[in-house]
Specification:
single chain; alpha+beta; Alpha-Beta Plaits; 2 domains; 5-stranded antiparallel β-sheet; elongated
Length: about 170
């Protein structure tokens, strides 16, 4: 029969969070985050993954034209995402409007990850010097005599109703 301490050691649970910071993240900020998270027995903190600069970044409605750095943190001590958010802002790790802390198992976060998995690697057409996709472009559908004739026929068949003046 196992002892109580062995059961306790086997049942060790960790709590995973996703920390999102709008703006640039330097080594000093990462060190401050690690130091603050030591209160909750930090198990791991991933390197920040940067998103491209977006006009309206996801999860940051009040900010514009900013990149978002995403880090995954795992702690041993039980804490909620809101408590962790408040603690990190009080410790000065990040300003409140530039920080989002969410459970890694949150349904919205899981849906975002699933939607990103389906995306294939994006390659810019401007970087392709030979323009390999030129054969796939159907120029006749977008402009030209046939397009103009179809557009004019479509306009002739439309019925316009005007408001009556009273």
């Amino acid at each position: 029969m196992k002892s109580f301490t062995s059961y306790l050691m086997e049942s060790e649970k960790t709590y995973s969070f996703r920390i999102k910071i709008a703006g640039e993240v330097d080594n000093d900020r990462i060190d401050a985050l690690e130091t603050a998270l030591e209160k909750y027995e930090l198990k791991s903190l991933s390197k920040p993954k940067k998103t491209p600069i977006q006009e309206h970044p996801m999860d940051f409605q009040t900010l514009s034209n900013s990149e978002v750095n995403i880090m995954d943190a795992e702690v041993n001590y039980p804490v909620t995402a809101h408590q962790l958010y408040e603690y990190l802002t009080q410790k000065g790790c990040c300003e409140a409007p530039h920080l989002v802390v969410i459970n890694k198992n949150h349904p919205e976060e899981i849906a975002r990850e699933e939607s990103l998995k389906g995306d294939e690697e994006y390659t810019s057409k401007l970087e392709d010097a030979d323009y390999k996709d030129a054969d796939n472009v159907k120029t006749e559908e977008v402009f030209g005599d046939a397009y103009n004739e179809n557009m004019l026929k479509g306009l002739e068949t439309r019925k316009y109703e005007f408001a009556k003046k009273e």
